[in-house]
Amino acid sequence: MPEKYHIETKPVPPRRPRIGKFGVVDWREDCARCHNCVKKACVYDRYRQEAEYIRTLEAVDALFFECMGCFSCVQNCTKGLLRLVINPVYEALGNGYWTPEIIHTTWAQAETAKIPVSGAGYRGPFSGPGFDGMWTDMSEIVRPTRDGIHGREYISTAVDLGRKPAYLTFDKESLRTDASCLSIQMPLILDLVSPRHTLPRLGPAVREAAVRTDIIALAKPSELPFIGEDADRLLPHLAFCLSPEEPVVPPNTLAQTRLVETYDGPAVTDRIKRLKDKFPGLVVAVRLPLDANGVQRAIELAGLPEIEVLHVVADPNGNQIGVDKPLFLKDMIRRIHVALIEKGMRDEITLVAGGGIALAEHTAKAIICGADVVSVDLPLMIALECHLCGRCEPGMPCPARLDEVPLDYAAGRMVNLIAAWHDQLIEVMGAMGMREVRRLRGDVGRAMFFEDLEEETFGKLFGKRK
After folding, report:
1. What is the rounded distance in angstroms from the CA atom of residue 312 to the CA atom of residue 290?
2. Exposed, middle or buried, 345 (CB in 10 Å: 0-12/13-18/19+)?
3. 57 lies in which domain range?
4. Is 143 among the domain residues?
5. C-alpha 376 chain-centroid distance
6. DSSP designation for 356
C-alpha cells in the first residue's frame, strides 16, 4: 500500500472583521432590563462576543454579524424586541454564480481546514443551474469501513498526467518506456490568477501552497527569477505557461520542472516536438479556451499523437466563452469525454478542466463528467477573505486589504482550503464505495442529472424545455 497522503494544516484566523450572514437588531426603547435576558443566555455566547467586539473596534467599517440564526432569543424575548436580520454586506458578496454562500464556505474552510457542516440540513433549492443540477451517489455511506476520512480503507486520490500507451510495446528484447507521465497526489492544479483580478500578487503564496500540498501550480515565465525563494524546492511543483508574449524560460530552469503548458495555435504540434526533443521526460499540456469551437477543437487535438494533456478552460462562471446561449462546463466535459471514448483514445489523453470550479463537490462532479483533473484560481483568492467585488483595479480601495496580505497568512489559508477539499473528495468517494479517484472518471452511473431525469419523466408529456 502506498504511503497515505496527508496535508499538514493549522488554523489561520482572518485578518479582518468577520462578515457573517445574520445579526440581531435590539430595539432598546421598550427593553424591560430582564435579569434573565435571552441575549445573555445565548448558547453560542454571541452576546459577550458582541460586547467585546464593540469595545475593541478600531474603525466602524463592519458591524457584528456572527449570529448562528437559531432564533432562540427572537422567540423567547418577553417584549418581542429582537429581530433577526441579514447582513447587507454579506448579500453583496460575489455574483450570481459565486454566491455569498460559496464565499462564506470558502472562508470557513481556509480558516479551519475542516469540512463545513450545516447542522440543520441542506436549506438550498432542490436543483439549480450548473453543478447544482447534478447529484452524486451516496449508497455506500452507511459502511463503516468506507466512512470517508474516518474509514479503515485507504482511498487514493492520486492521478496521472500525460499520455499513457494503449498497449505494451517492445524494442527487440526490452519494454519501450518512451511515454512521459507524472503523478500528483490529488486531481487538482492551481491555475493562473484571473487577469480580471490584479490584487494581490499571489504568485509566491500559490507556489508555496503547491509545495506544501505536493501538487502543481501554473506560473508565468515573467515571474522569473523567484527572488527570495528556493528555486530548487519550487520548480518540481511548477508548470510554466508558455506563450509568444512571455519571455523564454531558461533551459536549466525548464529541466527541473515536470510539466509545461502551451497555448493552442496553428503550430502547437511543432512547439511540442521542439520541447520534447530538448526535454524527453517533460509532460506538455495544451491550454484551450472553451469558446464556440472549443469542444470540437479539443476532440481534434486529442486525435494528434503529439498531444498528451488537454487543459480546457471555461470562463470564471463555468460558461462557454463568447456565446449567446453558452453551455456549462459539465456539459462540455461530457461531450469531449464521450467523443474520445467513441474514437477509442480516451485512456491515452489526460483531460484537465477549469473555470467555474467553486466548491470541493465540483471537483468530484467534474471528474464524474469525464475530467481527470480540475484547475482552480478564484477559490485561492477568495480564501484570503476576498469579497469578489470586481474592483481589483489600481487606485481602487480593496475591502479585504489584499494588497497587505502576508505570505505566511496567504499560503496557510490556501493550504487549509486545499486540505478541506481533499477531505471532502475522500468523503464523497467513501460514500460511493470508491477506493481510487481514477475509477471515478466518467462514471456517470454514480450521479443523477436533473436534465436527464426531467426529460425521461416529463419529456413525453410536455416536450423539451425551451
Report:
1. 6
2. middle
3. 22-92
4. no
5. 5
6. S
CATH number of the domain bearing residue 281? 3.20.20.70
Q: Residues 209, 358: one domain?
A: yes
Q: Tell me the pLDDT band of 123, cut-offs 50, 70 and 90.
A: low
Q: Which three cell numbers stand for residue 160?
A: 496521472
Are 294 and 332 within 8 A, CB to CB?
yes
Ordered DSSP codes for 437-452: GGGGTT-GGGEEEHHH
Helix axis angle, 294-302 relative to 329-342, nearest 10°?
30
- Same domain (yes/no): 300, 369: yes
> Does residue 254 lie in a domain region?
yes
pLDDT single digits (tens) 30-67: 788 788 888 888 888 887 777 777 776 665 556 677 78
Cα–Cα distance measured from residue 113 to residue 213, given in angstroms and rounded to the nearest whole number: 13
280: Cβ–Cβ under 8 A, 6 or more apart, which residues? 178, 180
Assigned C-alpha cell, 114? 475542516
What is the model's pTM? 0.90
Which residues, at least 6 apart from 180, have a Cβ–Cβ distance to it below 8 Å?
162, 163, 276, 280, 281, 282, 283, 308
Same domain for 290 and 367, yes or no, is: yes
pLDDT tens for each residue of 209-231:
999 999 999 999 998 888 888 98
Instruction: List pLDDT tens digits, range 280-316.
Output: 889 999 999 999 999 999 999 998 989 999 999 999 9
β-bridge pairing 174-175 and 170-171: antiparallel
Which stretch of DSSP H or E encloses residue 135?
A: strand 134-136
Supply the pLDDT for residue 228: 85
| Residue that is last in its domain, among 74, 92, 110 | 92
Tell whether 224 and 342 lie within a shared domain: yes
Pair 337, 234 in one domain: yes
From residue 312, alpha-carbon distances to 26, 65, 108, 403 in Å are 52, 40, 29, 30
